[in-house]
Amino acid sequence: MEKRFKISELAKIFGISKQTLIYYHKKGVLIPDYIDPVNSYRYYSNTQIWDLMFILTLKEAEFSLRDIQKYSESKSVNESVDFLEKKISSIERKIEKLRKAKSEIDKKILSLKEIDLDKDETVENIKKYKSYWYKIGLKNKNDDKEMAKIYEKLREIAKKNKILFPVYITKTKWVNKRIVIEEIGILVENRKGFSEKLEVLEGGNFLKLKHKAEYDNLEKTYLKLIEKIENKEKELIFYEFCSEVLLPLEKGIGGILEIFYKIGRSGKE
Question: How many CB atoms lie within 10 A of CB 238?
Answer without folding.
Answer: 21
